[in-house]
Amino acid sequence: MGNAPLPQSRRCTPGRVLATIPKELDSGGCPQGEVKGRIKKSCSLWFILGTLLFSAPLPAYAMHISEGILPLPWAALWFAVAALFVVTGVRQLNRLARQDLAMKPLVGLLAAVVFIISCMPIPVPTAGTCSHPCGTGIAAILVGPLVSVVISTVALLIQALVMAHGGLSTLGADIVSMGVVGSFAGYFAFRLLRFAGAGLGASAFAAGVVTDWATYMTTSFELASGIRGSEPFWPLATNIMLAFVPTQLLLGVLEGAMTAGMVTLLARKRPDLLIKMKLLTPGEATGRA
Amino acid sequence: MRHLHTPTPGSSHPVTSLDARVKLLTALALLVMVVSHGGVLFPLLVAMAGSALCLAIGVRPRLLLLRFAEPLLLAVIVLLLKSFFSGSEPLWHASPGGIDMTLHRDGLLEGVRIAVRIAGAVAVVAAVGFATPFTELLAALAWLRVPRGLIEVTIFAWRYLFVLADDAQVIHAAQRNRLGYVGLRRGIRSFGTLAGALVIKAFDSSQTMTTAMVQRGYDGTLPLLAHRPLRTAEVLPAATMVFLMGALWRL
Q1: I want to staple A145 with a disulfide (CB 3.0 to 4.6 A). Which of A24, A181, A183, A250 is the partner?
Q2: Searching chain A, which residue's CA lies closest to the CA of residue B209?
Q3: Adjacent-strand bridge partners of B101
């Protein structure tokens, strides 16, 4: 078992994909017709690998818009929009912290969890690559969308300063896509489904899916606005969004499953935490037990 | 996460001992210049200067490459996107396998402009990140009137990041040893369990931490690093450099 080859979904980096080329292209000792067939196959393989190499890393690494991509006016605009939500979020956090001293440490630790989650690769079989979840869906469910904006800001700030993932000049745009749009979309999806009587797991699943897809849609718009130059905006935005589709469609579902897994684990192991965060009533928790 | 486990090099380079506020302000000024520049040479110059500074303060080339890998990959992708999918002046044309591919001159130039802007901006932030401890950067941000609540939460996150990352690694290793990541469905379930376990640890640790801090007088606000007065010997060279770069930017 230990020596079994890795499944395709585990070969997640472009480097690993490329490492398999020589074996795939080796046609030694075959009849001529078979060789021709193999050459055709090899050409298709090269085409697929080339496409993977150039298209797969885009979604894999484009969760945050990279440093320097956005020109100053757009960077400033997104920064101003983000600042509005961050300041409101910090005010709400201060209000909550006055009632419960453990709130700031809790939000700090949740930010660390979101940071760690967003550093973990998830294999995406449709692209043969890895991407990573946002992690803001769970934060929005647990502490509300405004405090979740603060959590995203902290995670993004650390990533920008120590990992060159995202950036300072694009921090505003990244906060808007992942923190503001992702958190609010996920939170409202969760609340709407809970209001409609859906279960905890199903609602968390929807929140994860909506968070991921909303984040990527916003990222596409921001990216298109930044790099379009003199080109028309909508065709470029649509193209970027379509480039995200092969991985993000599935990754959103995976993030939904992960968020549902997290919430159901909390409901099973520590319902007291969900009661504290007002996600479950004591009666519901007793019913589940 | 590999970046995080490599501390800022204990270099004797004068830049590392500069006041974090001076470094941050200089970096922000350079960043504004890079992202607002419409040409190629200035961002390229900043990229080269930033990279050279990183190497001068003792950052290993491998680590530097690791830090630059992701943004530069994105820069290459943007360059290709702009070259082939935008622009109107054809520079090169081919039809491999019946697929029309046209490289546009104006698209290529625009792509190069964005790519060097990315390289320049990343080099600036990498240099300030390598030359300054994270906690000092946070104190400098507080001095720049970034909301205190945000700084406090970031300090808590930074303090517990490594503890939680270690816990995550232990859980992940245990799950892998029990074939928890064989197959997509099992992998997702294991990942959900791992993330849920981290959330539980975050809740429990925050309670324990608060109890311990309250016993030491915590009243809801954290003390931040105190700043010494800014020295002319530090501010003057930084301001001169910014003005020089500003002059180059205008050229």
Answers
A1: A183
A2: A105
A3: B94
Residues B128 and B20 in one domain: yes
Residue B140 covered by a domain: no
Residues B52, B152 share a domain: no
Q: Do B195 and A150 touch (CB under 8 A)?
A: no
Q: pLDDT tens for residues A214-247?
A: 998 898 889 888 877 777 888 888 877 887 777 7
CB spacing of A265 vs B129 below 8 angstroms: no
Which residue of B78, B110, B156 is in closest CB contact with A105?
Answer: B156
Q: Cβ contacts (< 8 Å) between B74 and chain A: which residues?
A: 57-58, 61-62, 66, 69
Per residue in A172-210, pLDDT tens? 999 999 999 999 999 999 999 999 999 999 999 999 999
Task: Tell whether A264 is covered by a domain.
Answer: yes
In a mutational test of the A interface, the residue from B79, B153, B171 whose CB has the highest number of chain A CBs within 10 Å is B153
Residues A271, A168 within the same domain: yes
With a cut of 0.90, is the ipTM above it? no
Both B122 and B237 in a single domain? yes
A195: distance to nearest CA of chain B, Å? 24
A25 and A69 share a domain?
no
What is the pTM assigned to this prediction? Answer: 0.82
State whether B74 and A122 contact (CB < 8 Å): no
Q: Is residue A3 part of a domain?
A: no
Average pLDDT per consecutive 10 residues, chain B (251 residues; last block may be shorter): 50 81 94 91 94 91 86 84 82 82 88 92 92 90 91 92 90 89 83 88 91 89 78 88 90 77
Residue in chain B lying closest to A87 (CA): B147
Tell me which residue range forms the domain holding A51.
11-55
Cβ–Cβ below 8 Å for A67 and B149: no
Q: Which domain holds residue B19?
A: 14-132+230-250
Are residue B194 and residue B128 in the same domain, yes or no? no
Query: Are B175 and B96 in the same domain?
Result: no
Q: How far is B230 from chain A (nearest CA, A)?
A: 23
CATH number of residue A179's parent domain = 1.10.1760.20
Same domain? B199 vs B236: no
Could A167 and B209 be called an inter-chain contact, meaning their C-beta atoms sit closer than 8 Å?
Answer: no
Cross-chain Cβ contact B149/A97 below 8 Å? yes
